[in-house]
Amino acid sequence: MAATIGEDGSVEPEDTRTVVSEIKLKPSQIGATIGGEPDDTTAAPIANPRGATPSVDLTQIQQRLLDLAAGKVEDPEPVDTDMEFFYDGLKVIHLPEWRQLPADRIQIPQWRRVADALYEQGYRRHPELEAKRWQPSPGTTARNPHDIGAFVERRPDGTWPIVDPEEFYSPEGINVSEQDGKWCAVHERAGIVEYAESRMKAYLAVAHQLESIIESAKRSED
After folding, report:
1. How many Å apart are CA 56 and CA 137, to the nearest integer?
2. In the predicted model, what is the mean pLDDT of residues 51-67?
3. Do 133 and 90 have their domain in common?
4. pTM reported for the whole predicted model
5. Domain range for residue 86?
6. Considering the domain boundaries, does residue 65 fall inside one?
7. pLDDT by residue (tens digit) across 101-144?
8. Cα separations (Å) of 159 from 32, 82, 127, 152, 208?
9. Contacts for 154 with CB less than 8 Å, ≥ 6 apart
């Protein structure tokens, strides 16, 4: 072992250890070294897998809107009546009651593709063969994909009846059951659900709303 002699004649051992390099660790690295989780602040930014972020030309968008408002942009070609029927009917297929099953609806994610495929294969609408027709719930105008609606049958003279709000929203459709110590009243067609401490209160809460819906539906028919 090497040693050095001091001025007073004492012998002191010489430190032969060598400093290899100085290592500086970030707090996140220290945490990871001892089993901790890395700090989120040190995470590298995620690169766009498709390359640079596409730029949006707001000037072109603004100009197109101005041209559209001024009538300078040509309107799209009108959709064929049969195609419009397929487009509208295949977004959501409404099914009438069948055997013991209630009325239902099926949503088709690729409805436009299905409609185009059927049209190209020769499928067409024949109104003279239509025996049943789906109508939206009374008091509504837009075709709501969640609307149960109702089916009506064609009259012998070829006309179609209108769904009666009184019949469609009849209180006879209220179902009351006990759930978790409370009473739950449901009217599926109207989409109403009410909870109350008693069976009668739950029923009346739904019935009062049905009365308002029926009055509103009748006013919309006038």
Report:
1. 42
2. 66
3. yes
4. 0.57
5. 78-162
6. no
7. 888 889 888 999 999 999 999 998 898 999 999 999 998 866 67
8. 77, 20, 12, 11, 33
9. 130, 131, 132, 133, 160
